[in-house]
Amino acid sequence: xxxxxxxxxxxxxxxxxxxxxxxxxxxxxxxxxxxxxxxxxxxxxxxxxxxxxxxxxxxxxxxxxxxxxxxxxxxxxxxxxxxxxxxxxxxxxxxxxxxxxxxxxxxxxxxxxxxxxxxxxxxxxxxxxxxxxxxxxxxxxxxxxxxxxxxxx
Length: 153
Fold this sequence. Notes:
By secondary structure, the protein is of the alpha+beta class. The protein has a single domain (35-152), classed as Lipocalin (Beta Barrel), CATH 2.40.128. Helices cover 15% and strands 44% of the residues. It contains 2 helices and 8 strands. It has an 8-stranded antiparallel barrel with strand order 1-2-3-4-5-6-7-8. The chain is globular, with a radius of gyration of 22 Å.
C-alpha cells in the first residue's frame, strides 16, 4: 500500500510539472519608454512629494503616443496622452485633456525623456493649479524593474 501511494504521488508530480505551459515574453513597441516608475515631484529643485509609483505605457492609437499615468492619483490624479519619439526616447504634450473620469483638466507634459535605460524626467503643468499652468513641476525617478531585469524575465 505504501508503494502504491508513493507511485501515485510521483505520477501526479510528473503530470503537474509536465503540463506547465511555456510562455514567450512579448515586448511592447513602446519599451523602453514604457514602464513602472518610482518618482518624486520637485519645484525648482526642492522635493515636494514622493516617492510614488507612476506608469507610462503604449496607447491603442498607434505607435506615435504613450500614456503618462499618475496611477491611483498619488500626485495630481492625471492620465495624459503624449506624443512619443522612440528614437530619442522623448515624449510631450502641449495640452492633453486628462483621461480620468470626472476630472477634465488640461495637462501639459514638457521635456519628457528616458535617460539611459532606467531613469525618467518630465516637466508637468496643470490647468487647475492656483494660477493655471504657472507652476512647473519636475518629476523624476527610476524604473521599478531595471532594463536588465526586465529583459531576463
